[in-house]
Structure formats: C-alpha cells, structure tokens
C-alpha cells in the first residue's frame, strides 16, 4: 500500500491535474478492490482533493464506473451544498445528516466525520445564541469557529461571563491554544479591553504566540505605550528585536543590536530607520565593533 500512497501524494504535491488523474485511474485499476481504493483515499486529509477530482470526472463523463462509490459521494456533495444555501438551521442539520449517511455508505469516514463535526458546531452555536450571557443576542449559527469565538469575546466587554463560555467552546472543538490566543488577543484589543488583555497576558509565563502578538495588537489600536509594555516582556532577543522594529522603536532596536554585537541587526536598523541621528549611531557602532573599516 505504501507505493500507491507515495504515488498519490507525489501527484497531489505536483499540482498537475493530469498527473493526479493518471495516478487515480491507475490506482482504481490496480488495487484489488474498491474497498482498498477507498482505504487509500481516507488515509490522509490531503487526499480529499483526489476524491473531489474523481467526483468531477464521473459527473462530467456520466460514466458508470464505480457507481456505488461516486453516486453516494455526488449526492452527499449536493447535501453539503444545500446545507450552506439554506438559512434554516433544521434544514442545514438534516442535509448534513444525509451527507454523513452517504459518506458512510461510500466508506469515506473522514468525510463523514467532517459533516458530523459541522452538525455539532451548528447545534452548539444554536445553544450559545440562547444563553443569557449572549447579551447582544448575536446570531452565531453558520459562522466559523474563529468568528464565533471572536464575536463572543468582543461582547465580553459587556458580559464578562462570556469568557468561560468561549473557553469551553474552544475546548469542545479542540481549538489549538495558539489559535485561541490570537483570536482572543485581537478581540480584546479591538474592543479596547486593556485590563482584560493584561489579565490574559498574565495567565502564562510564556504565551503560545509570544508577547509580540499582544504588542502588535495594541499598536494596531493606537496604544503604543501598551505595545511597549508588552515588548519589554519578550525574552527572546530575536523576537524582541523584530517587535521593536515593527513598533518603529529604532533607538531601542539599535541598543539591542549593539548589546548583541549583531551586524545583521545593526544593518537592519540602518536600512529601515529614517532618523539621521540613529543612522549615525548605527554607523559609529559598526565601526567600533569592527564590522566596517
């Protein structure tokens, strides 16, 4: 099975549609059974593209080849399309349940699982809409996981009890910690919840996205002093230097470059800064450190 998967992976990585089709048709002819073909297509999420290409082929040619597999998949795809088109929540869920059944019949468990997860998301969003903490009565059904979290985090300005609800929502849908941090930082900064942002920054000694994300979010909202405060907490010298440059804090960036005796960082300050005084200091430091003669 390894050689078949390798061929499929390489063809997909090539982004050459003709090569992908050639590989798929070869697999379909060569593998002992359709079950084994399905098994290969379900091994990796990236193979979903292969499934879609085969579906397009059999739709376009109206071929009778592999009818049991591709008829179910085509019908499931139509159900998915219906779930996105309709605004009625129950109709969305019914269509997704039908798609789940058809993907299961086609022995495509990865696709079935994705449809099931979408059902679970819609149901959870519906519950959140009815929560008393949803003081703005936001419509959440149909939003992405990230947008659902961001909207509720923005509204935590008016109802702090939304914060634990978002944490539970993120846990339920296995949101990566780094992604949760980035969404929460941006939401709190955009709604100018500076105390809440500071409290959040204290939860971990080393946040998964670093303090640079806090600093940049503050700067984007015009809070340079807040941004500088978070920059001061960065322990990685490379990350601190990058953040100082991002904040246009060239004097501090220059001092860090001199302290580190780093010629590349000195050059970065010299090339990016328009302040003649700082540029002259950078030139002087480069000479004193022996980087130029």
Summarize this, please?
One of its GO terms (biological process) is intracellular protein transport. The protein is mostly helical and 293 residues long. Helix content is 73%, strand content 0%.
Structure description:
One of its GO terms (biological process) is vacuole fusion, non-autophagic. Residues 1-277 form the Vps16 C-terminal domain. GO terms for molecular function: actin binding. This is Vps16 C-terminal domain-containing protein. InterPro entries: VPS16 (IPR016534), Vps16_C (IPR006925), Vps16_C_sf (IPR038132). The protein is mostly helical and 293 residues long. It folds into two domains: 2-118, no CATH class; 131-247, no CATH class. The protein is 73% helix and 0% strand. It has 17 helices and no strands. The longest helix has 22 residues, at 109-130. The mean pLDDT is 84.
């Amino acid at each position: 099975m390894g050689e078949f998967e390798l061929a499929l992976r390489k063809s997909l990585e090539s982004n050459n549609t003709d090569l992908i089709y050639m590989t798929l048709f070869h697999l379909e002819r060569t593998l002992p059974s359709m079950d084994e073909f399905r098994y290969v297509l379900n091994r990796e999420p990236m193979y979903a593209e292969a499934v879609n290409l085969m579906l397009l082929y059999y739709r376009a040619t109206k071929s009778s080849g592999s009818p049991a597999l591709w008829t179910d998949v085509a019908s499931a795809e139509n159900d998915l399309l219906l779930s996105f088109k309709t605004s009625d929540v129950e109709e969305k869920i019914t269509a997704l349940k039908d798609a789940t059944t058809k993907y299961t019949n086609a022995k495509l468990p990865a696709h079935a699982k994705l449809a099931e997860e979408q059902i679970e998301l819609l149901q959870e969003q519906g519950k959140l809409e009815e929560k008393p903490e949803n003081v703005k009565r936001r419509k959440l059904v149909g939003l992405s996981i990230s947008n659902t979290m961001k909207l509720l985090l923005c509204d935590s300005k008016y109802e702090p009890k939304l914060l634990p609800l978002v944490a539970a929502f993120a846990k339920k849908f296995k949101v990566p910690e780094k992604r949760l941090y980035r969404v929460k930082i941006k939401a709190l900064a955009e709604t100018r919840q500076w105390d809440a942002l500071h409290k959040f920054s204290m939860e971990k000694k080393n946040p998964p996205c670093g303090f640079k994300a806090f600093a940049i979010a503050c700067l984007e909202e015009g809070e340079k002093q807040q941004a500088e405060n978070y920059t001061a907490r960065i322990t990685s010298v490379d990350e601190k230097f990058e953040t100082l440059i991002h904040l246009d804090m060239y004097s501090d960036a220059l001092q860090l470059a001199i302290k580190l005796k780093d010629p590349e960082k000195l050059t970065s300050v010299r090339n990016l800064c328009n302040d003649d005084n700082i540029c002259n200091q950078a030139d002087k430091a480069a000479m004193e450190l022996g980087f130029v003669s």
